[in-house]
Design brief:
- The protein is of the alpha+beta class.
- It has six helices and eight strands; from the N terminus they run ββααααβββαβαββ.
- It has helices at about 25-35, 35-40, 50-60, 60-65, 110-125, 140-150; strands at about 10, 15-20, 70-75, 80-90, 95-105, 130-135, 155-165, 170-180.
- A hairpin with a 2-residue loop joins strand 7 (about 155-165) and strand 8 (about 170-180).
Length: about 190
């Protein structure tokens, strides 16, 4: 019998808290992933049915077994989901993983996504002992590119026509961050 994955650890920043996703997050998760502004540059289209959120939350344990740490992002003074941050594709043999994130548009421009990523990266490097984190970003998403660059990520590649989403074709700017390059301050 395979061991159960360790629980998703809570992480805290000055204004953001990352906690495990919970079944009660379905409505907020659907609101986030059904927002066309949030999903504009993602590798899958905006959700159209709350059942997609319910199914995602039902599969969190399976995803955890595949070396994934999915967090709900909340404001420190409120437990309601306002975003997500995930370390996934963790390859312990190669000491690397991938980071993904989303934040409610009403909170954009306040440095909260930077804080979410800082928490996840500190955990990846200091607790998990990873040496490399990657980010796959649509190069048209200038705000996201600037965000990871502020944290020390370097653009390492450009993959043309990588994603087919909603009838469109999207490229990828592939970013990488080594532990020794991580800028903890991010601003």
């Amino acid at each position: 019998m395979k061991d159960e994955p360790a629980p998703v650890p809570p992480l805290e920043g000055a204004r953001i808290r990352l906690r495990a996703l919970a079944p009660d997050d379905a409505a907020a998760l659907f609101a986030l992933y059904s927002d066309a502004r949030v999903m504009r540059y993602w590798s899958f289209p905006a959700w159209t049915d709350i059942q997609q959120a319910v199914e995602k939350l039902a599969h969190v344990d399976r995803d955890r077994a595949l070396e994934s740490l999915p967090w709900a992002a909340t404001l420190r003074d409120d437990d309601a989901l306002v975003g997500t941050c995930t370390l996934f594709g963790i390859q312990r043999e190669h000491l690397r993983g991938v980071v993904g994130y989303a934040l409610s548009p009403s909170l954009w421009g306040r440095g909260l996504a930077t804080e979410m990523l800082q928490c996840a990266l500190l955990h990846a490097f200091d607790v998990l002992g990873l040496e490399r984190i990657e980010a796959d970003i649509d190069p048209r998403n200038h705000a996201s590119c600037r965000l990871v660059e502020r944290l020390g990520f370097r653009r390492e590649g450009y993959l043309r026509e990588r994603w087919r989403v909603g009838g469109g074709i999207q490229d990828t700017a592939l970013y990488g961050l080594l532990r020794r390059e991580f800028t903890h301050g991010g601003r």
